[in-house]
């Protein structure tokens, strides 16, 4: 038995591109943070916020 430090994945939230209303849950994809629901295009910039996720798709999946 090897004791393992608990790795808590803190939920990160952010917006995509010009849409600053929908706050998505951000998940790491290939070293980048992307919306969990897949919103936005790859060229859309992600802005991380200390805000509560309000995207229904991100919260529902
Ligand atoms: Zn979302």
Please provide a written account of the structure.
By secondary structure, this protein is mostly beta strands. It has one domain. The protein is built from one helix and four strands; from the N terminus they run ββββα. The protein has one helix at residues 56-60; strands at residues 12-16, 19-29, 32-35, 46-49. It has a four-stranded antiparallel β-sheet with strand order 3-2-1-4. The longest helix is centred in the last third of the chain and has 5 residues, at 56-60. The N and C termini lie far apart (34 Å). 23% of the residues are buried. Zinc ion (ZN) binds at residues 24, 35-37, 39, 55, 57-58.
Shape: elongated
| Structure annotation, total helices | 1
Distance separating the two termini: 34 Å
Low-confidence stretches: none
* Domains (count): 1
The share of residues in extended strands comes to 35-45%
Strand order of the largest sheet: 3-2-1-4
Helix-and-strand structural type: mainly beta
The helix content is under 10%
Give, in order, the helices and strands.
Answer: EEEEH
Total number of beta strands? 4
- List the bound ligands: zinc ion
Largest sheet report: 4 strands, antiparallel
Radius of gyration: 13 Å
- Average pLDDT: 89
Question: Layout of SSEs?
Answer:
Elements: E1 12-16, E2 19-29, E3 32-35, E4 46-49, H1 56-60
Antiparallel strand pairs: 1-2, 1-4, 2-3
The protein binds zinc ion.
Residues 24, 35-37, 39, 55, 57-58 line the site of zinc ion.
Short recap of the structure:
This protein is mainly beta.
What brief labels describe this structure?
61 residues, 8% helix, 4-stranded antiparallel β-sheet, elongated, mainly beta, binds zinc ion, 39% strand
